Amino acid sequence: RFEELLAFVPYMHRFLSKKRIRHRIFVLNQVDHFRFNRASLINVGFLESGNDTDYIAMHDVDLLPLNEQLDYSFPEAGPFHVASPELHPLYHYKTYVGGILLLTKQHYEMCNGMSNRFWGWGREDDEFYRRIKGAGLQVRRPSGITTGYETFQHLHDPAWRKRDQKRIAAQKQEQFKVDRDGGLNNVRYRIESRTDLSVAGAPCTVLNILLDCDTSETPWCTFG
């Protein structure tokens, strides 16, 4: 996703600086040989973000906010879904919480983070919605935004970026279950490298992450 990254980092740095929101951009880059696991990467980002951060933005690299009225401030009242179904160019179902979601660190811990069982693309944010509800939290969304589906620029080109949507072995049944045991408490990983970069003058930290998989628990983490 290098091309998206070159656009995302300077754009978000300018956008947040203009709104006077102090921020650090962490790029969570999976470098092992397992299938992509967005949820585990976000868990790692949370754990590695340091004590000087008090909330996180789970932010897709291919989604840029175009409307400066969007609120990225501290989500004290509960998880704040910036890319709400009324505004996201692709996903419009009412329980959708993907794309861009802000949470305090306390609220993320109350959910035990995200499930580590979702290898391949999709479904992990639907499971996280159920975790949010289970923790007694209410998802809030933007109000008064009049730009509709033009609120964001979606950089994803499906012809260029093929998504790994295969469902292997028991994964088909598994993807609709709630993971009551795993999450932040049992994500297994190693940081291969941590690099501070500047992209067109905008600072970010790239974490090259080696995830680990228990193939007896989730055999669908590999294609083989």
TrEMBL record:
<dbReference type="InterPro" id="IPR003859">
    <property type="entry name" value="Galactosyl_T"/>
</dbReference>
<dbReference type="InterPro" id="IPR027791">
    <property type="entry name" value="Galactosyl_T_C"/>
</dbReference>
<dbReference type="InterPro" id="IPR029044">
    <property type="entry name" value="Nucleotide-diphossugar_trans"/>
</dbReference>
<dbReference type="Pfam" id="PF02709">
    <property type="entry name" value="Glyco_transf_7C"/>
</dbReference>
<keyword id="KW-0479">Metal-binding</keyword>
<keyword id="KW-0735">Signal-anchor</keyword>
<dbReference type="GO" id="GO:0046872">
    <property type="term" value="F:metal ion binding"/>
</dbReference>
<keyword id="KW-0808">Transferase</keyword>
<dbReference type="GO" id="GO:0006024">
    <property type="term" value="P:glycosaminoglycan biosynthetic process"/>
</dbReference>
<comment type="function">
    <text>Required for the biosynthesis of the tetrasaccharide linkage region of proteoglycans, especially for small proteoglycans in skin fibroblasts.</text>
</comment>
<dbReference type="GO" id="GO:0005975">
    <property type="term" value="P:carbohydrate metabolic process"/>
</dbReference>
<keyword id="KW-0328">Glycosyltransferase</keyword>
<comment type="similarity">
    <text>Belongs to the glycosyltransferase 7 family.</text>
</comment>
<dbReference type="InterPro" id="IPR027995">
    <property type="entry name" value="Galactosyl_T_N"/>
</dbReference>
<keyword id="KW-0333">Golgi apparatus</keyword>
<feature type="domain" description="Galactosyltransferase N-terminal">
    <location>
        <begin position="2"/>
        <end position="72"/>
    </location>
</feature>
<dbReference type="GO" id="GO:0000139">
    <property type="term" value="C:Golgi membrane"/>
</dbReference>
<feature type="domain" description="Galactosyltransferase C-terminal">
    <location>
        <begin position="79"/>
        <end position="154"/>
    </location>
</feature>
<dbReference type="Pfam" id="PF13733">
    <property type="entry name" value="Glyco_transf_7N"/>
</dbReference>
<keyword id="KW-0472">Membrane</keyword>
<keyword id="KW-1133">Transmembrane helix</keyword>
<dbReference type="GO" id="GO:0046525">
    <property type="term" value="F:xylosylprotein 4-beta-galactosyltransferase activity"/>
</dbReference>
<keyword id="KW-0464">Manganese</keyword>
<dbReference type="GO" id="GO:0030166">
    <property type="term" value="P:proteoglycan biosynthetic process"/>
</dbReference>
<keyword id="KW-0325">Glycoprotein</keyword>
<comment type="pathway">
    <text>Protein modification; protein glycosylation.</text>
</comment>
<protein>
    <recommendedName>
        <fullName>Beta-1,4-galactosyltransferase 7</fullName>
        <ecNumber>2.4.1.133</ecNumber>
    </recommendedName>
</protein>
<keyword id="KW-0812">Transmembrane</keyword>
